[in-house]
Structures are given as C-alpha cells and as structure tokens.
Write a structure and sequence with these properties.
Number of domains: 3
Number of strands: 16
CATH class of the largest domain: Alpha Beta
Oligomer: single chain
Distance between the termini: 60 Å
Radius of gyration: 20 Å
Helix content: 10-25%
Strand content: 25-35%
Length: 305
C-alpha cells in the first residue's frame, strides 16, 4: 500500500476532491481516484467523504493506493532504438506516440513494457514496479533521448544530476511566428494553471523556477525551427514557455492553436542531445540523435522554395 498525504491551500478552496488529487497524482486517472474514494481509501481529516467533496483550506487528505500486482505490467517485444547500453544504464531514442511508463488505463505498449522484455529484472527498482528504471520522462508526443537506470546506484546518481540541473538537455522544435531576435532566455516560474488545472502555466503562486534558453536555427515563413536548452525540467516547460512568449509549438493543441495546418500526432518537439556523468565511470557522456523522419519531412515542406 502506498500512502500519500496532501494539505489543501487557500487557492484549493471549493475544488472537488477528485480533481485536486488528479493534479497531485498524475499517474492515476479520475475514475481510479473516484473508486479509491468510494472504497474508503481516501480520507479527509481522518474521515471518509464522497467524490464530490469540496475542499476547504488546511484540509488534510490521506490517499492509500493499493500496490499493483507485478503481473499487471507485462514485458512486450517492442523494438527499441538503443543508443548505448552497459551494466548500469541504457540510453534510448524514444519515438513519438510512445508513453514512457504504464499508468492507470494504459498498461501496454509503453517504453517500460519494452524495457522489461529487453532487460528482464535488470532495472532499477527505486520507482517501483510501474516505473522500473525510469529516471526522467518526456511527453508521449515528444520524441528523443532518455537515459534509464539498470541499478539503484545508477538511478540515485542520475536523479541527483537532474535535481542539480547538471544534465545537458537540448531539444529541437518548430514553433509559430517569427522571432525578432535570434536567441533569448525565458526565465519564468511554472505551476498549475489557475484557469485549467489540467494544464501548466507561467504563474507566480505555487510555482517553481523554470529557465529555457532558445536559439533560432532557421526561419521558414510563419514558422521557425529552433533549438532549446533546459536549465530546469518542469512539466511541459518548453511548451509552456514558448506559448508564453507568443511562439507555441506546431502541433501542440493544448498550449497552441486548436486547429493545426498539418496532419500531426502532437507537438513537433525532439529531445536531440542528452549529456550526463556516467554513474560508475564518473566520465561525461553525450548522446545525439538526428531529427526523426516526420520532423525532417515537415522542415522540407516548410522551407522556402
């Protein structure tokens, strides 16, 4: 049984309990949270409540989530684009439209299912059976490089580098609208959107610092190919920051225009470079990937003739 405890703040007042928890526990669906409430696994101030309960400031919410059975997460023979592998780590080039790890309602065809088939039980157990080896994530519709830990020691070292913002993480994206300058920095805190709590936004309250460096690589009419380097790694950081300065990502219907001019599966964003200190050798390693085929074809289509 996993136990989580949260405290409601003033800006959570009158927010439905299941909605509040869906933001705190992103791996659990609303329907699963509602079942947990109905089964008495979620209490407010030590008492059972219904799913419609509306929070009051200083409410203490206790969530008890039964541990999933190991058999729920099955190995799947899914091809992996492996850039590097040794006894400590494995570096993967994740394709677009692949979920990184299983969550309620999505247990199959994830990167973790593929890793379990490839690595067996040789994955770090720090994040539990739902996320073995997973140190960091990228969105389902974002392609690119991830490093996965095979041992707990490797996991701890990599997680510390993420926390200290010492990893090199460089992305490419296609965004709307021409930039006036060729490069710049967005240094704005990111937190949950007060208007749509399923989204992130640049907000001052209940937020964390977020810094994104960007550089224009090529101007293509109303779209720009850019390079982005992360200092921090907040949820949806690139998507939020670019939308905030008026350059939402092409294909991003959450933070950009709802209607897209091309038949895209999601935002055009690729994690192209990842660098870190190897947890065992203590030597710096850096990996690069070319842009995926769909990304390059789009560039070719957008380039001025």
């Amino acid at each position: 049984m996993n136990c989580f405890i949260f405290s409601a703040e003033e800006n959570d007042e009158n927010l439905r309990l299941d909605i509040f928890l869906s933001e705190k526990l992103e791996d659990l669906s609303r329907s699963m949270l509602q079942r947990l409430i109905s089964d008495g696994n979620i209490n407010v101030n030590g008492k059972s409540v219904n799913k419609n309960y509306k929070l009051k400031p200083k409410d203490i919410i206790e969530v008890n989530v039964p541990k999933p059975k190991a058999l729920d997460i099955m190995p799947s023979d899914i091809p992996l684009d492996i850039l590097y592998e040794d006894n400590e780590i494995i570096v993967i080039n994740k394709p677009q439209n692949m979920v990184v790890h299983p969550a309620a309602g999505h247990y199959d065809d994830t990167l973790v299912n593929a890793l379990l088939f490839h690595c067996g039980d040789k994955l770090s157990g720090i994040n539990g059976i739902m996320r073995p080896g997973i140190v960091h994530r990228i969105d389902r519709d974002t392609s690119g490089i991830l490093v996965v830990a095979k041992t707990d020691n490797a996991h701890k070292h990599l997680a510390l580098q993420l926390e200290e913002h010492s990893m090199t993480r460089v992305y490419n994206a296609i965004v709307y609208n021409n930039f006036k300058e060729d490069d710049g920095i967005v240094d704005k805190p990111i937190g949950r959107s007060p208007n749509d709590r399923k989204k992130m936004a640049v907000v001052e309250k209940n937020s964390k610092n977020a810094v994104t460096h960007y550089k224009v690589i090529e101007r293509m009419g109303r779209f720009n190919l850019i390079e982005l380097k992360l200092e921090t790694g907040r949820t949806h950081q690139i998507r939020v920051h670019m939308a905030y300065i008026g350059h939402p990502l092409l294909g991003d219907i959450v933070y950009g225009p709802k209607k897209q001019p091309f038949n895209l599966q999601g935002q055009v964003l690729h994690a192209r470079i990842l660098g870190f200190i190897h947890p065992a050798t203590k030597k710096y390693m850096e990996f690069k990937t070319p842009l995926p085929e769909y990304f390059q074809k789009l560039i070719d289509k957008l380039k001025p003739h």
